[in-house]
Design goal:
The complex is a heterodimer.
Chain A: H1 4-12, H2 20-33, H3 35-52, H4 54-57, H5 91-97, H6 99-127, H7 129-144, H8 147-157, H9 162-189, H10 192-199, H11 204-212, H12 217-240, H13 252-259, H14 269-297
Helix pairs in contact in A: 3-6, 3-14, 5-14, 6-7, 6-9, 6-12, 7-9, 8-9, 9-12, 10-11, 12-13, 12-14, 13-14
Chain B: E1 6-17, E2 20-32, E3 37-41, H1 48-55, E4 63-72, E5 75-76, H2 82-91, E6 93-96, H3 100-103, H4 110-120, H5 125-138, H6 144-148, H7 157-169, E7 175-179, H8 187-204, E8 207-212, H9 215-221, E9 224-229, E10 232-238, H10 239-244, H11 249-256, H12 298-302, E11 307-310, E12 313-316, H13 323-328, E13 347-358, E14 361-373, E15 378-382, H14 389-397, E16 408-410, E17 413-414, H15 424-429, E18 430-433, H16 437-440, H17 447-457, H18 463-476, H19 493-505, E19 511-515, H20 523-540, E20 543-547, H21 551-557, E21 560-565, E22 568-574, H22 575-580, H23 585-593, H24 635-638, E23 644-645, E24 651-652
Parallel strand pairs in B: 3-8, 3-9, 6-7, 7-8, 15-20, 15-21, 18-19, 19-20
Antiparallel strand pairs in B: 1-2, 1-4, 4-5, 9-10, 10-12, 11-12, 13-14, 13-16, 16-17, 21-22, 22-24, 23-24
Helix pairs in contact in B: 4-5, 4-7, 5-7, 7-8, 8-23, 17-18, 17-19, 19-20
Classes of the chains: A mainly alpha, B alpha/beta.
Chain lengths: 298, 673
Amino acid sequence: MTDPITQTEAAAGSVPATSTRAVRRELRRQLFRSKTFIIGSLILLFWVFCAIAPGVVGTHDPSKQDPASKWIHPFFKEGHWLGTDRFGRDVFTRAIYGAREIMIIAPASVILGTAIGVVLGLAMGYFRGKLDDIISRVIEALMSLPVILVALLALTSLSGGRLTIILLIGFLFGPVIARTIRAAVITERDLDYVRAAELRGERSWYIMFVEILPNVFGPIVVEFTVRLGYAVFTMAGLAFIGFGTQPGSPDWGRTIFEERSSLLSDVWWPSLVPALALASLVVAINLVADAVQGLIDR
Amino acid sequence: MSTPALEFRDLRLAYVVRGHAREVLRGVSFAVQPGETYGLVGESGCGKSTAAYAAVRYLPRNARILSGEVHLAGRDVMSLDKHELRDLRANNASIVYQDPGQALNPTIKVGPQLIEAFRLIGLNKTESLGRAREMLKKVQIADPDSVLGRYPHQLSGGMQQRVIIAMALACSPQLLVLDEPTTGLDATVEAEVLDLVRGLRDEFGTSVLFISHNLGAIRSMCDRVGVLYAGKLVEEGSSQEVVDHPQHPYTVGLLRCLPRHGSRQSAQRLETIPGFLPLLGADLPTCVFVDRCPLASDKCRSTAPPWSADAGRLVRCHHVDRVDELAAAELPKGIPTVVDRSGAPLLVLDGVSKTFQQGGQSIKAVRDVSLALYPGETLGLVGESGSGKTTLAHTVLGLHDPDRADSITFNGTPLKAGTRSRPLEQVRGIQIVFQNPDSALNRRHSVRRIIGRSLKRLAALPKAEIDPELHAITAAVRLTDRHLDMRPSQLSGGLKQRVAIARSFAGKPRIVVCDEPTSALDVSVQAAILNLLGDLQRDRNTSYLFISHDLRVVRYLSDRIAVLYLGRIMELGPAERVFDGPHHPYTEALLSAAPSVDGDTRERIKLSGEIPSAVNQPAGCVFHTRCPRRLEGDICSTVEPELTPTPDGGVIRCHIPFDQLGGQPVSISFAER
C-alpha cells in the first residue's frame, strides 16, 4: 500500500510534492526552464563578474591617457575594438570597469529600500486605521515630489559620496515598496491564522514579523528585483547630472555625461557604449524579475 | 427511447501533470434523458466537476481525453471545431457554477450582463431587454427592473444565483449543468433555489446534470443518481432507491457517515470510511474501492467487478448480496455526555449587545443576548447568515468589545474586552476552531511550530515539557509524529482541521468555540472530526459553543440550542424540544428548509423575502416580515415579544402561546426505513 499521507494529498487535490525540499526543487527547476530567466541571469552574471574582476575582461588600463590615439573609430582599429575617447582611453575597458560602482550602489540601496518598505508596509497593513492613513498620505506627498529635485536637495546639502547615494535611493524607494507590501499584508491579516495568533495573546511585532512576513515573501522578492532595475536607472541619472562619482571615473552615467559633448563632433561611441551597457543591465534585471514574478504569481 | 440530452460513453480523461497523464475519469458512462434530472454524487477529488466540465468540453489545457466520447444533443462534443463548439455552448447547454459571486462581473450592472446572454442567441436590443425582464420574473425576482439596474454586489447570494440561472436559461438549453449550485448558500435560500430549479425544469423541459456532495439535495432533486468514486461510477439508479437502499459499500458508507434520524452523539458515534481516496492517476486494475471496503475479498483484489444490472440499478461490486450486512450493522456506541449542571455555569452572557458603527449608521449585529453555558455542555448556535452567530462568538473570544463591559462572565469573573488585556487564565480558557483550516493555519509554519507555539504561549510550559506534551496532544487528535514536520499544504482538509483542533486544545481550554468546523469537509471526514470533538469533550470536560448551518450536525452534537435571528435569541432550549417542537415559527421554517436524506415527509414552509438589514430592523417582532404564522391584527408588527420561559427551562420569543406553537416531528428526520 502506498503511503496514506501521500494519498490524502491527492484526495485534497493539493500540492502533490511530498516535502518542502521537493517544492523548492520544483521551483528551481521551473526557473531554469524559463528562457527569460536564463538570458537575464547570464547577462547579470557577466556584469557581476566584471564588477569583481574587471582586469580579466578589460584589455587596457581604463585611466591611461594617450593623446596621440584619441577618438579612434570602433571595430578593431589599432587594438581598441570599441574605439577610444577624447583622452585616448579605451572605451571597452572603461565600460567594463564602470560596472563596479553600479553593482555596489544599486543592490545596497535596494536592500535598504526593501527593509524600510517591509517594516512600513507591515505596520500599515497590519494596524490599518490612523497610522495607515497618516503614513499613506506622507508617502503620497513624497512621491509627488520630482525625484531629481529631492536628489539635488539631498546631495547638495549632504556630501555627494557613495553612502549618500545609497541612503538617498533607499529612502526614495522605501515608500514605494511599502505600498506594495501593505497591499499584500492587508489580504493576509484577514486570514484566520492571524485571528488565532491574536487569540493566544501574541504581541503585534510577533504577528507581523513571524506570522505574516513569511507569507508575503513572494511580493517582497518581486519588488526587490523590479526596484533593482529602477535603482540602476536612477543612479545613472544622478551620475549624469554629476552626482555620486568623481570626475574621470569610468562609471557609466558619469561617462555619458562627460562624453556627450563629443556627440556634436560625430563621435558617438564613447557615450553610446556605456549607454548600451546600462541598458543591457537594466534589461537583464527586468528579465529576471519577470521570470520570478511569473513563477510567484502562479 | 429518444436521443439522450447528454451521454458519456466510457469516457477516460486524464490531466497531464509534469509529463505524466493522471487519470481522473476512469471510464464513465451514463446518459441523461430529455427532461430528466441526473445527479452525480461523491466526495471531493472523485471527478464530479471534471465530468461537468467535460460535458461542454470546458477543460483546462492539460486535460487529455484518453478514450471514449461525450455526446450532447446527439453531437460528439470532442470532435467539434471551435465555431461548432461555441455554437453548441451558446444554444444547447449552460453551466451554473458553485460561487455566484464569482460568476458575475462585479464592474458591470446585472442588466447588461443578462441582456448579453440574449444578444448572443441573436435577439436585438429591445427584444433582449424584454426577455431579460421576463426571465427574471420566471426566476421569481419580484422587481426585475430594479435588479437589472444594480451591481452584483448589491444582491444577496440567493439573488445572484437566480440571476445566473436566468442567464443560463436564456438560450433555452436542452441541458443545464449545475455544479454544486447551493453549496455557499443558507439552507432557507438553498431550498428556494432548488424549488426554483425544479419548477423551471418542469416548465422548460430541460435536462439537468446536478453535481452535489449533498445526498439530501440529490434525493430531493434528481430522478436518477450516479455515485462516483475515484473517477468511476460505482452505483447508479433512481435517486430514492440509491439513497434508501444503497447497494454499493461506498454508498452505504457515505450514508452512514451522516447523523440521521435525529440521532445524538450520546447515543451513537458516527461511522467513518477508513483510509483515503486513491491517488489521482493511481493504477487501479481491480475494484476502485477495494482498499477501504469492509467486504473486500481476494476476488475483489484480483478482478474488477462488472456492472451488474438489476431492474434499472447498476452496481459495480462483487458482493452485492452481502451489502445488506453493512447497512444493518449496529452503529458504534455513543459518547456519554459529561454536562454538569449542578454547579454554576462556566460562561454567562447577560444582555450582551454588539453594535458596529459604519458610515454614521449603527449596525446592531447582536442584541441583548443572555445565555449560560455549563461545564461539559455543547450549546448549538443556529441561524441564517447575518443572524449574528459569528459576531456573538467573536465577542465572547474578545475579538470584538461588547457594547456594555462586564456583560460576559467566565468562571465567575467578568471577561475583559479585548484578548490582549485578558489575563492568561481567560485567554487560554476560551479558544476557537475556525471554519476553514486553510486560512486558519499559517501555511509557512510546520505543524510542530503551529501547535508548539500554542503550548508555549497558552499552556505556558517550560521548554523541556513542550515536546512530550506536543506528542500527547497530536496523539489525542489522531495525528502521528510524522505529520509534525509537514506544512499545512501537505495535509488533507481533515488532517488540517485536526491540527487546528490540537492547537485550540493546547492550553487546556474550558470552552472551545467551533465555528462551522466541518462545513469545508467531506461527509466521511466530517464524521471523523465530529467523533473526535466528542472524545475530546468527554476526556477533557470541555464546553462547546457550536456554530453550524447544518442542522443535523447541530442536533447530533448539542445539548441545548439557541436560534438567532437578526442578532436576537428567538428561542433557546434542549435540542430535542427545539427540533421536535413546540418551537418558534422561525425554527420551524429553518428545519423544513434543509433537504434531508431521510425523505421529506411534509410540506416545506416557505420563508418569503430576505433577512432584513441589521441597520433598519423591523418594528415589533423582527421576524414578522417573513413569519408564516403572523397573527391577525397588528400585535406582531408593533410590539416586540419578550423572551418567555418554557417548561423545559428554555426561552422563546413569540406572541403565540407556547402550547399552540408548531410541533410535530419535522421533516428533517423520522421517515423510518
